[in-house]
Amino acid sequence: QVQLVQSGAAVKKPGASLKVSCRASGYNFTDHYIHWVRQAPGQGLEWMGQINPNTGGIDIPQNFQGRVTMTRDTSLITAFMDLSTLTSDDTAVYYCARGVAERPEGVKDYSYYMDVWGKGTTVIVS
Amino acid sequence: SSKLTQDPTVSVALGQTVRITCQGDSLRNHFASWYQQKPGQAPQVVIYGKNSRPSGVSDRFSGSRSGNTASLTITGAQAEDEADYYCESRDSEVVFGGGTRLTVL
Fold first, then answer.
1. How confident is the model at residue A7 (pLDDT cuts 50, 70, 90)?
2. Shortest CA gap A13–chain B (Å)
């Protein structure tokens, strides 16, 4: 079945960098974007960006630009998210999720959603 | 980027119908997706597009959109529906609503 398996929990010092991996299985890795979403303790979901595994092209929202890098290794069917210059505000659970874009017949607009999520990677910055 | 606004908390009596709303300008041109998140678990999509449900999601869940407001309706709410619900949409980038905590009384 379709699965995204993330790397394990991490404890980081302020100022350090973080690398989280997300290994895909059960589908053609290059057919779907991979999104990265984080959730601070007791808070909501925050989108960190997306990568096109086929081209390596990335989209990063302004609030993470300069600190987030997303890459992929198609031979390992794995996506990676790097976050630099960590502070305590980066303490969160980090999720990867598979993106879907589809347009049902007869419908003008595309539907975009994240249909499969990894279990999350807990990161503590302290 | 556009902002999506949700009520922080909503409650519903067991077996009754509840509507969770999401407001934002991007919803005038883009569908919302809705995610359910239970404590300690990753989110899972319950509604996407015009009103589509992934396989395995109860038909108690339905979605709609009017103007700048998207709605998730749970008809005949059950105890297992108690969770946090997030809307998501996109124009130039993906944005999530702040989330609604649903309590089933």
1. very high
2. 24
